[in-house]
Design goal:
- By secondary structure, this protein is of the alpha+beta class.
- Helix content is 30%, strand content 27%.
- The protein has 12 helices and 18 strands.
- The strands form 4 sheets. Strands 6-10-11-18-17-16-13-12 form an 8-stranded mixed beta sheet, with helices on both faces. A 5-stranded mixed beta barrel has the order 1-2-3-5-4.
- It is elongated.
Length: 443
């Protein structure tokens, strides 16, 4: 009888061992996918793709057990040989192969040249062949950067005393109001896909004080723009016992500082591949909604058309203004009009036409919406009545407030938009693994 003890011995070397000088001039084994083949005649350079990056191997046709004529890009192989120093190779070393084991062989040639440094094809082609196009080193590096953002969100909030929660994505009604809901039948009952974990995370503030979640949200908006997705990943948190909605903005600033430091420390390879210059998050300016509109209108000669919301062009101009005037990559726009905020947004006691809420713009694009919530049951139900809202389907949510809630607030960050702006992409689909929009349900 055998027992598992949590370890597994392999003959191949780990990446760290391959990079260790003590492994040089020793026998070594390397596993990976054949990324590219350069046949120079008597000598063949085979580049393997591993999760850590590219690794060079060198094969002399007469000295290997499998003819190089049988090798194909996309093969999974295990190669054995002598690890040698070679400054011209990636990472300064290469494997001189004496034995190759083919673990699997592709049944068809690749539909695109993924071994090129930059994938020279259309976005549509990249999305149609997404599992293949992501094998390109630059393409997959985008999602390592995205990994860092999610990782830092979790790590930072754990360090700030938050509890991670997981809320349902199928519910009886939406949290944001409006008609932009995906409707479905749930065992013959009407249901919707969640627009947001808003109600649940507020309810959990009464349990844990501070909660966060990373998960999908669904918006049935008939947009076909470069900034919209119908399913995206939201980084949400909600925190209780706040003194002001500005405390939420301070928490997000802390997260962004933590994220940029993590990227500098652990993701230099991806930053270099993608040529990313990290934004300055030392201090983020704040500006009132109405003031921001006036500043952009006056400097750039744009007429204010919508007094209740920011149009995409206005967001871009506000971002441009703060970059030119304050060298700021981010800007918090605060005090959005109550008319354009959900019923649970707390109105400004000094002027109830506005709310204690904010958006965070990153290079002129909204990546975060947040603010302070109404925590008093009477005020919450009063605002619902003023808006002509029914309580049907929200009984449990309202009961939470009936039985007492602390002052609280929170936010939601669009992961794909944040990634897009950080990488300087111009289409959010570039940074979504498998985008869902008005026309795309596959792959």
């Amino acid at each position: 009888m055998e027992f598992m003890d949590g370890t597994w011995k392999k003959e191949i070397l780990s990446w760290d061992m391959l990079m260790d000088d003590r492994s040089l001039d020793q026998e070594a084994g390397v596993e990976g996918i054949i990324h590219s083949i350069r046949n120079m005649g008597d000598v063949v350079f085979v580049i393997l793709r591993k999760r850590e990056g590219l690794f060079q191997t060198v094969c002399e046709n007469a000295r290997t057990n499998v003819s190089v004529n049988e090798w194909k890009e996309g093969m999974a192989v295990c190669m054995k040989g002598i690890l040698s120093s070679e400054q011209r190779a990636p990472h300064g070393r290469e494997l001189h192969v004496t034995h190759i084991e083919i673990l699997s062989s592709p049944a068809a040639p690749l539909p695109m040249a993924i071994d090129k440094w930059k994938l020279d094809t259309s976005l549509e082609a990249k999305l149609n062949y997404r599992p293949i196009s992501l094998r390109n080193i630059q393409e997959r590096s985008k999602f390592k950067i995205q990994e860092a953002l999610v990782r830092s969100f979790r790590d930072y909030l754990y360090g700030q005393g938050f509890t991670e929660i997981h809320t349902p994505k199928v519910g009886a009604r939406g949290a944001e109001g409006g008609a932009n809901l995906f409707k479905l039948s749930y065992f013959h009952k009407p249901a919707v896909l969640a627009q947001s974990p808003q109600f649940y995370k507020q309810m959990m503030v009464g349990v844990f004080d501070r909660v966060f979640e990373t998960g999908p949200v669904f918006r049935a908006e008939k947009h076909n723009t470069k900034r919209h997705l119908n399913e995206y990943t939201s980084l949400d948190f909600e925190m209780g016992f706040i003194d002001s909605f500005e405390e939420i903005m301070a928490m997000e600033t802390g997260f962004l500082q933590y994220a940029m430091e993590l990227l500098r420390k652990d993701y230099q390879k991806e930053l270099s591949i993608l040529k990313i210059q990290l934004p300055d998050v030392g201090k983020i300016p704040t500006v009132r909604f109405d003031t921001a509109k006036k500043l952009a209108a006056e400097k750039y000669g744009r007429k204010i058309r919508n007094p209740y919301d920011l149009e995409p062009e206005e967001e871009a101009l506000i971002g441009q203004y703060f970059k030119e005037e304050h060298q700021a990559d981010f800007v918090f726009v605060t005090h959005y009009p109550s008319k354009k905020r959900p019923f649970y947004a707390m109105d400004d006691p000094e002027d109830e036409r506005y709310t204690l809420s904010f958006d965070l713009l990153f290079h002129g694009l909204e990546v975060t919406t947040g603010g302070q919530r109404i925590h008093d049951y009477s005020k919450l139900t009063e605002k619902m009545e003023k808006r002509g809202m029914t309580r049907e389907g929200m009984e449990q949510y309202l009961d939470t407030f009936k039985h007492g809630m602390p002052p609280h607030g929170g936010l939601g960050i669009g992961l794909e938009r944040l990634t897009m702006q950080l990488l300087g992409e111009d289409n959010v689909r570039e940074v979504c693994l498998f985008p869902r929009d008005m026309t795309r349900l596959e792959p």
